[in-house]
Specification:
400 residues, alpha/beta, Rossmann fold, 2 domains, six-stranded mixed β-sheet, 17 strands, 22% strand, binds zinc ion
Length: 400
């Protein structure tokens, strides 16, 4: 569904500032290759508050009710959340027995870390498969979307919380005002709301354009968030710029006046000058990368080389479409996620095999679409004797 109004302030959206070809939904891997619905993939900015977002809204039930991404399956992720819990407990001197609510709690991985520190924990997540998994692991989790109405229901039953966390979900929520009002309902008077979200400044500066897909409807910067929370009687009082997912912010919010506003907020706001120029440069960069990669793949194909893809994370869909990778130049793809093996990539229907297929089928070239893990993938598969191509942040070849 086309949307014309801002997810933060209801202001009018601009014409697209970044326009990629329409794509299928990034996580719709298929058992049988049948034609798939394509959705426009265009980033606009709110003409009132400056919030970047898609001008398309996909039914959240279709995106999130069954979610394949299990946070706890990644060791890197697990370590991140254990450190996160420790950091926040220390930063706000949370005593044992404090109440922690995690929204979009996935398999309960963060709450597990809080629980081990003696906190009382509760999770909520719309993915029924993940909520069931968390409950089975002893982390009480409500299988639902978080809204203000839901929050009122929850507060009546569980009371308020000293800490409310919501990580990698603020980009996903279709109605951010309703979500933030719900957070306010759940917060104790001096309670802290802490969320981590991919930072759009890094997306532009580090060419992370493949994180743009329909699950992520918002691309956050602080500039529109500060007045957004203010309008709701809350205050964005601190922020940390972190490395997670190639560049994220960890944002701290409380009720207005409950805590002093830290200097880091103004420091990061100052870096967000000329976002429009940064976005335009990203658009040009994607064009250039696409041209270079297509030329390279065509050249290899003409020379009779056999090309396969290594790693098809959700963001590979944007990458394949935005860079214009022709599926006829690709023989197959491999991925270590068991659930994806034996399926076909969204839209282009490239067959996905287990990673040992690279030794059985022996392609000449492997194109790494999980490019942020390129180093560890190439190390792990040092036995592969062909050429590796890593398309981002610059087109590079290894092992020629
Ligand atoms: Zn706005």
């Amino acid at each position: 569904m086309k949307i014309q109004h801002c997810r933060l302030c209801k202001g009018t959206l601009s014409e697209p500032k970044l326009k990629f070809p329409p794509t299928p939904l990034a996580n719709e891997y298929l058992k049988d290759p049948t034609p798939q619905e394509l959705f426009p993939l265009e980033v606009c900015v709110c003409t009132v508050c400056g919030h970047y977002q898609l001008n398309e809204s996909v039914d959240p039930a279709r995106l999130f009710r069954y979610y394949q991404y299990v946070a706890g399956h990644s060791a890197v992720n697990k370590e991140h959340f254990v450190r996160y819990a420790g950091h926040v407990v220390e930063r706000f001197a949370l005593p044992e027995g404090s109440a922690v609510l995690d929204i979009a709690s996935n398999d309960g991985i963060l709450l597990q870390a809080f629980k081990e520190r003696g906190m009382r924990v509760l999770g909520i997540d719309p993915a029924e498969n993940l909520a069931a998994l968390a409950n089975a692991n002893g982390i009480e989790t409500i299988p639902d979307f978080f809204t203000e109405a839901k929050a009122l229901e929850m507060r009546a039953h569980y009371g308020t919380f000293d800490l409310v966390t919501a990580n990698n979900v603020f980009a996903h929520v279709p109605d951010l005002e309703d979500f933030a009002k719900g957070v306010q309902v759940m917060l104790a008077p001096r309670g802290v709301f802490s969320f981590e979200v991919s930072y759009f400044l890094d997306v532009c500066d580090k060419t992370l354009f493949d994180t743009i897909y329909h699950e992520h409807s918002s691309y956050h910067t602080l500039t529109p968030l500060v007045p957004f929370f203010k309008r709701l009687g809350m205050e964005l009082f601190d922020v940390e710029h972190i490395e997670n997912h190639g560049g994220s912010v960890r944002v701290f919010v409380t009720r207005a006046g409950a805590r002093p506003v830290e200097l880091q907020v103004a420091e990061l706001l100052a870096k967000e000058q000329d976002m429009e120029g940064k976005v335009a440069r990203l658009g040009v960069k994607v064009e250039e990368l696409g041209q270079a990669l297509r030329a390279k793949l065509n050249e290899l194909k003409s020379a009779g080389k056999r090309i396969a893809i290594f790693g098809v994370p959700a963001k590979a869909t944007t990458l394949i479409y935005a860079l214009g990778i022709d599926e006829r130049t690709i023989e197959f793809a491999v991925d270590d996620t068991t659930l994806k093996q034996g399926t076909y990539t969204p839209g282009k229907h490239i067959p996905i095999l287990p990673s040992n297929a690279i030794y059985e089928r022996k392609p000449d070239v492997l194109l790494v679409l999980a490019w942020n893990f390129a180093d560890s993938i190439m190390q792990k598969h040092a036995a592969f004797t062909g050429t590796w191509i890593v398309p981002i942040p610059e087109l590079k070849e290894y092992g020629i």
